[in-house]
Amino acid sequence: MFDSHATVDWYRSQFASLERTLNGEAASALHGMRRSALERFADLGFPTTRDEEWRFTNVEPVARTTFILPGADSVRRVTQTDIAPHLLAGAHGPRMVFVNGFWVPSLSSIEGLPAGVRVESLAAVARHREADLLPHLGRIAPADTNGFTALQTAFFRDGVFLTVPEGVAMEEPVHLLFLSTEEPMPFATFPRNLIIAGERSRVAVVESHIGLGSGLYMTNMVTEVLVGVGAVVEHDKLQNESSRAFHVGSTFIRQGERSQVTSNAISLGGRLVRNNVTVVFSAEFAESTLNGLSLGTDEQLIDNHTTIDHAAPNCSSHEVYKSILDGKSRGVFNGKIFVRKDAQKTDARQTNRTLLLSDDATIDTKPQLEIFADDVKCTHGATVGQLDEDQVFYLRARGIDEVAARDILTFAFAGDVVEKIHVETLRDQLHALLQQRLGQGRIRALRP
């Protein structure tokens, strides 16, 4: 067992180191938010398996690791050549690149934005226009959600502040690329994104978290999305961290009247991964679509928790989360749909499907509906199974060998989610990554 008091003391010491780098910013309102969040973390600590929301996910390996805050010197070692495989090939939209939590202007490209659109470093805005952040930052994602969110709010430094004004439709996706390098000491980064889509605006955001090498580190990130009346937003998150990394990511979305949101969460890498997606309907006639795909191998643990809060009437939500688990990997899915008392005419549908490629792979799935209104349409379901041997036989009877046949069926299972991503360049990238990961899993399975 880890010493929770020692853990809190360690993060207090790291916080003191952070404060010494802030100069005048230590007196800012945002830093006051950080201090309050640190105290909240001291009260909450890291969650344990005694907490209902975390009972299938033991984060003790995270809690007992002494992560340091990375230095800016590591940024200089990353080049355009290093990031090239992780870019959206053929895309010409804005790109913000972060290395170990630090924005790197020389690797980024934010030219040619539509009038009024801002894609900025959160740290730079905090230094020069703090008032632009205060009405929203930390309002959509409360710091007391759990210990990880509190810790993230205490230590966030940089990330992206994206604002799309009323009526503006962005034709190209905005790519947020967060890279982590292999360092001598375990380190932690705390990226924070704030996305504000104005009334009747349209934007697609691709958020990529990539590990360069096989380093031991933690990414603890929060993305807050405020969607205005009639706005259309797609948020695509690709997590492909180091095989030794820990990733805890939380996306909080608040939707306005008649808005449309699509959230696609793809998890490929990491040793222990937790994805939280929370959607709140704050006004009528809004619609959300949540899709997720996890591919686990070896002893990975990938935990997906989603919450859709129907707090307003006449809203609809559609959710499909899939997992492909091989080796001794474990998956967790917990999907909650709340329908509040006044949220009549709600239409909510949720599906969780898991494909087990190994007898040693496991999944814990828990779809939940909590309905307090009368006039609603709500369904949920979960299925767990292996490849259909009849389908394998069908393909083999047509001259396809067994390995290829199984790969085709597995890829088709995953492709159902990938094809729902509207950003074509990301779809192409994912097809290549999935084929690579399926091949790696097959090679590992053949080892004695």
Architecture overview:
- With 448 residues, this protein is an alpha/beta fold.
- It has one domain.
- Helix content is 24%, strand content 36%.
- A hairpin with a 2-residue loop joins strand 1 and strand 2.
- Helix 8 crosses helix 9.
- The longest helix is centred in the C-terminal third of the chain and has 23 residues.
- The chain is globular.
- Which H/E pattern describes the elements? HHHHEEEHHHEEEEEEEEEEEEEEEEEHHH
- Poorly predicted runs are none
Main beta-sheet strand count, sense and barrel state? 10 strands, mixed
Helix coverage percent: 10-25%
Distance separating the two termini: 33 Å
Query: What is the radius of gyration?
Result: 21 Å
Q: Widest sheet: strand order?
A: 2-1-5-8-10-12-14-16-18-20
Number of domains: 1
| SS-based class | alpha/beta
Overall mean pLDDT stands at 93
Shape: globular
How much of the sequence lies in strands comes to 35-45%
Per DSSP, the total helix count is: 10
